C-alpha cells in the first residue's frame, strides 16, 4: 500500500506540473504586457515593475521564467485581481466555501436518492417499475443542465413563486461569515432570526442543488443497478439466501456495501464534469461561488483571476480524484490484492 500511495503522490505532482506548464504557456499569449498578465497591476511603478521582473525572472530564459512562475503560483501568490485590486488568493478562498456547499448538498441528494432507486430497479420483478426508473435516469442524463436550471427557475421561481431563483440568502439578513457555508453560518448567527435565516438559506439552495444533482443522480442509479444485478448472482449471496436470511438483511449487509464500490469509483471519474456543471449552475442562479467568480473574470478580462481560478479548480479536482481513487483502493479488497500482487 505504501508504494501505491507514493505512485499516487507522484501522479499528483506530475499532473500539477503539467497544469502549471499549460498556464505558463497560455499566460504568454495574453494580449497584454507580461508583467500586467502576471501581477494584475496595470500601471506599475518602477519599484513594482522591478519586483515583478525579479519575482518572475522575466530577464531570464524560458526555463528560469517557468521555474519562477511555478514557485510563485504554488507558493500562493496568484497576483492581484485586475478589477478589484485585491489578492486573487483571498477572493478564491472566499468563493470556495459557497461552491463546496452547493456540491456537497447536490452530492448528498444524488446518493441518497440514487442508491435506493438503483437497488429498487435491480430487485424489482415488475418490468414497469424497472423501465420507468431507467427511463427517468436516461432522460435526466440527456437534459442539458442550463436548460434544466432555467426551466426550474421559470416554473418554481417565477410562475409558482415557491422558491427563490438567485443568491444564497435574502439580502435582509446580514450573516457574519464564519465558515463560509451559509447553512452553517446562519445557525451560528447570534440572533433571534437565525432559524428563519437558515430556512431562507435552505430555500435558496434547493433549485441549484437539484439542478446540479441530476447528472450524478442518473449515474448513481445506473451504476448501483448494474452492480446489484451482478452481486446478487454471486455464490455468497446464493449461500446467504439458502441459509434463510431475510432479503433486506442480504441487501443491506452483503450486497449494498459491495455495490457502492463502483459507485465511489465513478463519482471520482466524473468530478471534472461535475465541477463544470457547478459553474454553469452558479451563473444561472447568481450564486457567489468559484464558478460565477471565474466567469465574471473571463468577461472582464481579469487575467490573474483566470489563472488563479483555473489553477485552483483544477488542483482541487486532481486532489479529490486521487483521494477517491485511494479510498476506493483501500475499501475494495480486490484492488488491494492487485496492488500486493504487483509488488
TrEMBL record:
Entry keywords, A to Z: Cell membrane, Membrane, Transmembrane, Transmembrane helix, Transport
Chief location: membrane
Pfam family, one: BPD_transp_1
Domain annotation ABC transmembrane type-1: ranges: 96-328
InterPro entries tied to this protein: MetI-like, MetI-like_sf
Localization in the cell: Cell membrane
Entry membrane topology: Multi-pass membrane protein
Chain segments annotated as transmembrane: 9-30, 102-123, 135-158, 201-223, 263-285, 305-327
PANTHER family cross-referenced by the UniProt entry: DIPEPTIDE TRANSPORT SYSTEM PERMEASE PROTEIN DPPB-RELATED
Record family assignment: Belongs to the binding-protein-dependent transport system permease family. OppBC subfamily.
Name listed for the protein in its UniProt record: Antimicrobial peptide ABC transporter permease SapB
Amino acid at each position: 500500500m505504501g508504494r501505491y500511495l507514493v505512485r499516487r503522490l507522484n501522479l499528483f505532482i506530475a499532473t500539477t506540473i503539467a497544469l502549471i506548464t499549460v498556464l505558463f504557456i497560455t499566460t504568454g499569449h495574453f494580449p497584454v504586457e507580461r508583467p500586467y498578465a502576471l501581477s494584475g497591476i496595470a500601471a506599475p511603478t518602477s519599484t513594482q515593475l522591478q519586483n515583478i521582473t525579479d519575482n518572475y525572472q522575466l530577464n531570464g530564459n524560458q526555463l528560469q521564467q517557468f521555474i519562477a512562475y511555478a514557485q510563485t503560483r504554488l507558493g500562493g501568490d496568484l497576483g492581484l485581481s485586475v478589477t478589484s485590486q485585491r489578492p486573487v488568493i483571498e477572493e478564491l478562498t472566499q468563493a470556495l466555501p459557497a461552491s463546496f456547499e452547493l456540491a456537497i448538498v447536490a452530492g448528498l441528494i444524488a446518493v441518497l436518492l440514487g442508491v435506493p432507486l438503483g437497488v429498487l430497479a435491480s430487485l424489482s420483478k415488475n418490468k414497469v417499475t424497472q423501465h420507468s426508473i431507467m427511463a427517468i435516469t436516461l432522460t435526466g442524463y440527456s437534459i442539458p443542465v442550463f436548460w434544466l436550471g432555467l426551466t426550474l427557475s421559470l416554473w418554481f421561481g417565477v410562475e409558482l413563486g415557491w422558491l427563490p431563483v438567485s443568491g444564497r440568502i435574502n439580502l435582509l439578513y446580514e450573516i457574519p461569515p464564519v465558515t463560509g457555508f451559509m447553512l452553517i453560518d446562519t445557525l451560528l448567527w447570534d440572533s433571534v432570526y437565525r432559524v428563519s435565516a437558515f430556512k431562507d438559506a435552505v430555500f435558496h439552495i434547493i433549485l441549484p442543488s437539484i439542478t446540479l444533482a441530476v447528472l450524478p443522480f442518473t449515474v448513481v442509479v445506473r451504476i448501483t443497478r448494474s452492480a446489484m444485478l451482478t452481486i446478487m448472482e454471486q455464490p455468497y449471496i446464493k449461500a446467504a439466501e439458502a441459509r434463510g436470511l431475510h432479503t433486506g438483511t442480504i441487501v443491506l449487509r452483503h450486497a449494498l456495501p459491495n455495490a457502492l464500490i463502483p459507485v465511489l469509483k465513478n463519482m471520482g471519474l466524473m468530478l471534472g464534469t461535475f465541477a463544470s456543471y457547478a459553474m454553469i449552475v452558479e451563473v444561472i442562479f447568481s450564486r457567489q461561488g468559484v464558478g460565477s467568480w471565474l466567469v465574471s473574470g473571463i468577461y472582464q478580462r481579469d487575467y490573474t483571476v483566470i489563472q488563479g481560478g483555473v489553477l485552483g479548480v483544477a488542483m482541487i479536482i486532481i486532489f479529490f480524484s486521487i483521494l477517491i481513487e485511494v479510498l476506493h483502493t483501500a475499501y475494495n479488497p480486490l484492488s488491494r490484492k492487485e496492488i500486493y500482487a504487483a509488488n
